[in-house]
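Retro notes, item 3 of 5
We never archived the inputs for the magnesium ion complex last cycle. Fixing that now. Sequence and ligand:
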Amino acid sequence: MLSVKNLAVSYNGVPALHDVSFEVEQRQLVALIGSNGAGKSTTLRAISGLLRPDHGEIAFEGQRIDARPAFAIAARGIAHVPEGRGLFSRRSVMENLYLGGYTQTDRAQVNASLEEVFTMFPRLKERRNQRAGTLSGGEQQMLAIGRALMSRPRLLMLDEPSLGLAPLVVDDIFRILKEINTRGTTVLLVEQNVREALDIADRGYVLQTGATVLSGPSAQILQSDLVRKAYLGL
Amino acid sequence: METLMQAVVSGALMGLVYALISVGLTLIFGLMEVVNFAHGQFLMLAMFASYGMSVLLGLDPLVSLPIVAVLLGILGLITNRLIILQVIRGPMVAQIFATFGLGIFLANGAQFLWSPDFRVVQNPWLGQLAGGLVRLPGGVYLGVPQLGAAVLAGVAFAALYLFITRTKTGLALQAVAEDKEAAALMGINSQRMYDVGWFLGLACVGVAGAALANFYYIAPQVGNTFAIIAYVVVALGGFGSVSGALLGGILVGLVEILSPVVLGISPDLKYAVVYSVYLLIVFIRPQGLLGRY
Ligand SMILES: Nc1ncnc2c1ncn2[C@@H]1O[C@H](COP(=O)(O)OP(=O)(O)OP(=O)(O)O)[C@@H](O)[C@H]1O
Ligand SMILES: [Mg+2]
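Structure as it came back at the time:
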């Protein structure tokens, strides 16, 4: 469904990615792991069109998307929950959710999505008129995920959704991501919480200094020497 | 006491017109972080458009108002596409020179084409209505054209506010103003929102210009005073804040008209008082009353 081949991206001439390749099959949950500065966020930002690649190919559902503007890629069915969540903090929870459904033209469908999001995150319903900036960290992450779901994405990409959250909340988030995936949405998850991410993932890719260095079924990745030493400290 | 009431009411009414002029400036800034230094000259063009249609086509300013609004909106769109989008990625000074230069070009062009003379629209309907003067309870007299202009400004401002807060496009506009990247991830095309912002912002200037044409003199340099007032209003209310423009507009309208009455100074000095109040407020609250910057 998503295929990234030999992706290279730089910031003002300074390379951040030089050779990133991976595949995400339909209905899979794929984890992309790597330490700080490995290039995980850069990869997601290139896929969603926020960055232009120098080389390489990104194809979604068989079509090249690497030269398309971000708003057009979003409209094609890729939702990206960015690092730091990217909420509209001055707008209310409701307004954020409606903005998530911006590409949807069918009003009934938007309302149906809204109901689904509220069922998944009852807390958001309670706080629907509150400004997003006043929510707790966990609630903000729920809103960011709920907002992404409002566009009924076929591919949901999340950049470190567990960052800065209490362990119990992290468990909640991972459980919900698994559930979203089980219901049919393909998920690409960037995480530093290696074990939890690989526990719910079908496949994993390890990114190091701008290149994918390891790939395989997540159980296999968890057993690998590289991951055990470098990421799990075993 | 009656003169004070009189001053308060007229000041607040004129303040609504200032608010409408300024809201375009604040809207565009909020969206693109571009200060339109040609704002006053666009107002001048709106007044001339209204005047021209009354002289050439016999259309009353009230009739030509929607036409002027749309014309100015289109002019905003063209300005955005031809000038602003070319310089927006450049340094701040490039943007300043671009719009500042445009303003000078428009004012001098108007002077060249239409001479520096002052004109007025002859016998506008609002001027003839009820003898052109209404008496409010409390012995306050108001010119019908001034009252009409304030009502028009108030209605246009309210319409803009409802559009921004209650429609999908309005919400998208606010999203782009807050975070362009996040807005793009929602599928919002920010370039399109810039078009919408310039169209709406200058349509407001169009309405204000047509409303002012009912009673204000019209000349190539008329934009200067209003431009300076608009910058003060926006800085006072807070750059990028729509409700700040309303608050700032009314405040400036009041200070401007009350200072000669209350302080007993010459009306020539009223702007000195306006700027003093502005400096005072900005000194205490640099981001403006309702601003975030
Ligand atoms: N805006 C930027 N300008 C310049 N360099 C950047 C920018 N963003 C990231 N980089 C560089 O690109 C490389 C990859 O960064 P990236 O943010 O993709 O890493 P990451 O894997 O997401 O790390 P983290 O886990 O810390 O979020 C790093 O060397 C980083 O310093
Ligand atoms: Mg990152």
